[in-house]
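Request: How about a record?
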Amino acid sequence: METSLRQTLYQKSYIILGVDLASNPGLRPHVAPEKRFEHILPSGVRVSVWKGDLANFSAEAVVNAANSQLHHAGGLALALAEAGGPQIQKESDDYVRTSGNVRTGGAVALGAGKLQCKAVIHAVGPQLYSLIHDRTSVFQALFTSVRDCLWNAVSSKHSSIAFPAIGTGNLGFKDTEVAQIMLHAVCDFAKSYPPPLNVHFVIFPSDVDRFKVPTPAEGATVTQMDCSCDTLLTESE
């Protein structure tokens, strides 16, 4: 690899989407997408890491970290809903009204409103702390959610999909766990469904004071995530 994930992820000015966003996403400055890392799996599926904002990121499908009611009231969900306009919440409400809540570990593809993408795939990740005595089931639900997102993209003939780090923040997963599970899901899916498919993981530039990434002395969870990603991608070859 020409660029290590350590250089990509271990910087204080970055935060993985899904942890939190600014309290008023409408006031966030525009972020020009910048590729920081890329790796091609043996199947040909291209995995990349970007500095950017999912609300204006160019991919055919964008994944939203949603709740089962598809009520987009905060975090990434609110940012996408505000950027995409009222159609995002309306289609979500219509779906829940006719089909019911999205199951935990599931995903549903709906319209993109005014976003640049063709579809928003709403993924419902499990809450780790709610099932603390059954971690295996929780991890499997997150794995399934990522696979469902990928399946939604491929079945709709989308050639690219952009993910946040599903499961961090309020859902209680560690960065290392998210990296391992999401990359395992991508690698596993890629064995059955070859390209064309570009899988992007998007990192949002953060306010350093409000969203501080630990330094080595503070635990270096991002460095741990880096090592997990590097190991998994190497093992996939």
